[in-house]
Hints:
Helix 1 packs across helix 2, helix 2 (31-67) packs antiparallel against helix 3 and helix 5 (159-170) packs across helix 6 (178-187). The protein has a three-stranded antiparallel β-sheet, with helices on both faces. The protein has a two-stranded antiparallel ribbon with strand order 4-5. A hairpin with a 2-residue loop joins strand 1 and strand 2 (133-139). The protein folds into three domains: 1-91, no CATH class; 99-232, no CATH class; 242-288, no CATH class. It has helices spanning 6-21, 31-67, 76-91, 103-114, 159-170, 178-187, 204-212, 242-245; strands spanning 125-130, 133-139, 151-154, 261-263, 266-268. The termini are far apart. The protein is built from eight helices and five strands; from the N terminus they run H-H-H-H-E-E-E-H-H-H-H-E-E. By secondary structure, the protein is mostly helical. The chain is elongated and about 120 Å long.
Amino acid sequence: MNQPDPTTDRRDRYAAAMAKRDGDTWPTEYENDEADYRRRADAAMAVADAEQAELRRVADGLERDAAAPGVAEIVRPALRDAARQIRAALAVPAAEEQPENETPDFVTRVLELFSASHADAYGDLFWTVDNGAVRLHANVSDVFAWGGSDCEPITPDTLPALERAYADLKAVGAEEFTAELYAARQRGMRPQGAAYPSKTHESWRQVSALYDACGPERELGLGNPKAPPTAAAPPAVVPQPEEAMAPETVCVCSHTRREHVTVSGRLLCDTCDPDSTDNLVCRGFDAL
Length: 288
């Protein structure tokens, strides 16, 4: 069976979008009108292809700059992020190219994941409508750089990654960090230290481990002024005298040495009668 020509199919999608924008139908009533819309579609496709090629060159240049020696470390993440956002925008199909039967299910599922019944993070979901097409974004302002507005695109292709982030966080009782973990994994970058959950969150260790797995440790600087929380260091081992390190002994009266009262250099216990001259010293220990 012959496969449809991708170029012809794309031209017809562009032409149909133009016709509908003009209030016409597609196919049009007159054959000459269809031919005219297709010619206009060819011109639009040529412009779009040239613009996309230029954006790819820009993204390549940003990535080369980010890897170049001598670039300040604080600048590298911003360059990489700009390149990533350009490539993400190029990967999103135009409105006339989106399969209409897939969009509602995709949008509904993303809304569900961020809703109060799931992650309860509806404030972390942004959206725009471009030419009738819904664009979804995870709000990650101040997550990767101090004092910065930022968002991460959510597309049908990245929905499985969003699902995994939600599932991993739900397993540790921290679904509210879905946007942050999703974006960190997409970028291969840890959030800034100030964006880590504080130690008051019962799952802060688990969330921190998930964040740490997203990328290498970040240097402290202008965009990352605060280190993430860490577990308290174990108490220092203070050398003890040999007697203190030995197992605690219990005397015949069932008390330990430290539980005895010392009077005039002699160990007394509750079972010893201080007024007695026969059993004044606890026989379980030597007198001090």
